[in-house]
Amino acid sequence: MTVDLEFLKDSPYFAGLTPAQLQSVRDRVFERSFDRGEMVSLEGEVSATLYIVVSGVVKIFMTSADGKEQILSIVRPGESFNDVPAFDGGPNPAGARAMGPVLLYGISGDDMKAVLWEHPPIAINVVRTLASRVRHLISLVEDLSFKHVIGRVARILLENVAGEIGSGPRMTQQEMAAMAGTAREVVGRSLKSLEDRGAIRLDRHRIVITDEEALRRIMEPS
Amino acid sequence: MAEKPIIDERRCRGCGLCVSVCHLHGLVLVGKVVVVVETVQCDWCADCELVCPNGAIACPFEIVLLQN
Ligand code: SF4
Ligand code: SF4
User: Where do the structural domains in chain B lie, given as residue ranges?
Assistant: First the structure.
């Protein structure tokens, strides 16, 4: 399969290039494919390759000392990842895993820099893409550093418990995130952490409160 | 029968991202809309909900107290 010029033209990095310029980018781009669950890049590894998702979804995450996964972002077709190590040559700040079958376009950091030298106007694309990445991470850092997110999630669970099975409201993690004023990525980890502490049990479509007292203790005071 | 994720057909664009990530192969595209396979024993991992760019598939939780 050859690298698709139309796809490159629409990607945030290469938008605005002429067909001839795109051709010179295409000569540097290579394809890689991964199956569900495969690691595209490891946290801490030096790889210096920028990837653009062509099809499928890639999960970017960090693992804490206690082995818990914190999702940083979900990368969908047309979006890129591994930009930071590709540009600064340092180790990957996060891991990347294929959530299903995935096709990627890769370009080495050196080639990306060469493209920038040759076509300086796309520097603005790079700045824009990195700026939006920084913005996303800053909001996530805010959420993660507020320890009481887990307390807010505990409160939401206690306030929305069904009197009888089938009678209560049903809530998605997105809705809980909106109620807790946090990101969807943080709610998943909060629920896991509440489960680890023995306060709840995730039982398919049910969240079973197994220790109401413990959950009340975790809940932040209003 | 196992509970299944809820699909909002008006929002679904048929991009197939949820289909590609479901580890139980429980989702399929029928034309431009995704449907849940009748027999899937969905484990509510919510990966489909996580990846959908349009908020078209939901795995809502019911919150219950443990009855002793
Ligand atoms: S990811 Fe969302 S929009 Fe795409 S097929 Fe699935 S439900 Fe539809
Ligand atoms: S919740 Fe998980 S198992 Fe169920 S349909 Fe979605 S991706 Fe598949």
Answer: 6-58
Residues of B in contact with A154 (CB under 8 A): none
Q: Supply the ipTM of this predicted assembly.
A: 0.86
Q: Look at residue A208 in the predicted model and tell me its pLDDT.
A: 95
CA of A83 to the centre of ligand 2 (A): 30
CB nearest to B21's CB, from A57, A201, A207: A57
Higher pLDDT, A93 or A66: A93
Residues A94 and A200 in one domain: no
CA A37 – ligand 1 centroid, Å: 20
Burial A69-100 (b: 16+ CB within 10 A, else e): ebbbbbbbbebbbbbbbbbeeeebebbbbbbb
Q: Write down the CATH number for the domain with range B6-58.
A: 3.30.70.20
Q: Is the CB of residue B58 below 6 angstroms from any atom belonging to ligand 2?
A: no
The predicted pLDDT at position A146 comes to 63
CB atoms within 10 A of CB B45: 15
Amino acid at A72: L
pLDDT in tens, A143-191: 777 667 899 999 999 989 987 777 778 999 999 998 888 888 889 989 9
pTM: 0.87
Q: Domain range spanning residue A198?
A: 147-219
